[in-house]
Every structure is written in structure tokens, then in C-alpha cells.
Design a protein that fits this description.
- With 252 residues, the chain is α/β, with parallel strands linked by helices.
- The chain has a single domain, classed as Divalent-metal-dependent TIM barrel enzymes (TIM Barrel, Alpha-Beta Barrel).
- It has helices at 14-22, 42-52, 72-91, 113-132, 153-160, 171-176, 180-184, 215-225, 237-251; strands at 2-5, 27-31, 55-59, 96-99, 136-140, 166-170, 190-195, 230-233.
- Strands 1-8-7-6-5-4-3-2 form an eight-stranded parallel beta sheet.
- The longest helix has 20 residues, at 72-91.
């Protein structure tokens, strides 16, 4: 199923946004942030499901949430936030949560490997919570920037090694890191897919055919080898609808 997600949706009251989305999509990936923090909208999620027939999956909170923090109290707080999101998802019968790996900040720049090491520890802890509550977790590849980990396929695989967690393939992020081919080779491990495009320099979240990522080639791989949901990550609902039309033709 093709769904949609956007940080911009957090600025609109949940049920109003759900009604608008339901007229164009059957699936919403909720970003558990701000007014859409999952434990604050649980009743609204249930009502939207009943009233509009929407299906849901969840993107774990990401603002100030760093599972790769080398400052242990902050790492533990980040894992706690994601764990609470997993538990809330289970209570709502939502079976998939996407999470970001850690990022490099502060003294971690003295030894970037520490951030990846802490990310691995965190993902093992998150995996235990996910298994306990029968929720699948997909770890997302990141866009190329000075703070990021897991921009490359090999590092993403290293981060999830031994955890049993799946991957969330993000086309736009992969394009900034010149990792499209390498990440698409991991398609058997995909549990979620985020599609948007850019010019290869930064994470613009353009319509899927507006950029240098070859969406036709990506769609061909997904059509052949991937059976899960595809989430259009857009800047607003209307641009998401434009992406949906493109994808429907390519995946036809």
C-alpha cells in the first residue's frame, strides 16, 4: 500500500488531518512528535481508524532523540522514548515503527565510532522491547551530513547486526549519500520504504520524480522484490498526492 507521512502534519489537529489524508490515502505514517505524540493521540487514532478507515504505522520521535549519544543519560532517555512509542503502537494494534539511528554530536566528533557503538547498544535494547510487544522495527538509512551515522549500506547493516531488526530504505537519503544501488541490494531486509527525491546535495523531500534519484529504477526493484508498504515523505499533502500518481503508474 502507498501511504504518506510528513512532519508538517503535526501542525494540524490530528482528526482534521486524518480526514484530509483519508480522502487521498489509505495509510498514514504518524510522526510521533509535538501534538501528534502517540500517547497524546491514542483516542484520535482509534477514532480515525473507525471513522475514516485509515491504517497507520509510526515513525518514532526524532527531535533531540539520539540513540547514539555518548552521554549515557541522554542515550537512555532516547531509548526510553522509542520504547514508549513501541508500547503505545502495540496498544493501538500498529505493528511497524521506524526509527532513526544515532547521530554524532559534541565530544563524539573526537571519535565518531563511539556514536555507532552506542547506536548498536541502543538498537539491541530497542529490539528486546519490540520482540516483547510483537512490533516490527525498521532502522532507516540517513542522509549524508556531518552528524549522520548509517548513511552507507555497510554501516546500516553493521548497526542492526544481530538485533533481528529490519531496514527502512529511504530513497532521498540514499541519493544524498550516493548509496542507492548499495541499499537497494538489501531489499530482502526492507520492512518499510520512504520515497522522496532531491538534487543529491541535501534532503529536500521533493516529489518522487523531481530530482536526481532514478525513481523508475527504484520502483522496478520494489515492484519485483518488495511486498511491504511504501510511504511518500512529502512537505505537504498535495505534493504527496502528486508523488502517489507517479508511483501508481510506475508500480502499476
Amino acid at each position: 500500500m502507498i501511504g504518506i507521512g510528513s512532519p508538517a502534519f503535526c501542525a494540524t489537529p490530528f482528526l482534521r488531518m486524518a480526514e484530509s489524508i483519508s480522502k487521498r490515502f489509505g495509510l498514514w505514517e504518524i510522526l510521533s512528535e509535538g501534538e501528534d505524540q502517540l500517547d497524546l493521540v491514542m483516542d484520535d487514532v482509534r477514532q480515525a481508524r473507525a471513522s475514516f478507515g485509515l491504517r497507520f504505522q509510526v515513525h518514532a520521535p526524532l527531535s533531540d532523540v539520539n540513540i547514539g549519544s555518548v552521554h549515557e543519560p541522554m542515550r537512555l532517555a532516547a531509548v526510553d522514548q522509542i520504547s514508549k512509542t513501541i508500547v503505545a503502537s502495540r496498544l493501538l494494534d500498529i505493528s511497524l515503527v521506524t526509527v532513526h539511528p544515532g547521530f554524532v554530536q559534541g565530544i563524539a566528533f573526537l571519535n565518531r565510532a563511539k556514536a555507532l557503538e552506542r547506536t548498536k547498544v541502543s538498537l539491541n535494547e530497542i529490539a528486546a522491547v519490540a520482540a516483547e510487544h510483537s512490533v516490527e522495527v525498521a532502522v532507516e538509512n540517513m542522509p549524508a551530513n556531518i552528524n549522520a551515522t548509517c548513511t552507507a549500506a555497510l554501516e546500516l547493516v553493521e548497526a542492526v547486526e544481530g538485533t533481528g531488526l529490519g531496514l527502512c530504505f529511504d530513497m532521498g537519503h540514499a541519493n544524498t549519500a550516493s548509496q542507492l544501488e548499495e541499499l537497494l541490494a538489501l531489499v530482502p531486509r526492507f520492512k518499510n520504504v520512504h520515497l522522496h527525491n532531491n538534487e543529491g546535495q541535501w534532503d529536500q523531500h521533493n516529489v518522487v520524480d523531481d530530482g536526481t534519484a532514478d525513481v523508475k529504477a527504484v520502483a522496478a526493484v520494489l515492484k519485483r522484490s518488495y511486498g511491504g508498504n511504501i510511504i511518500i515523505e512529502s512537505t505537504d499533502l498535495e505534493s504527496g498526492v502528486r508523488s502517489k500518481k507517479v508511483l501508481e503508474e510506475l508500480l502499476g
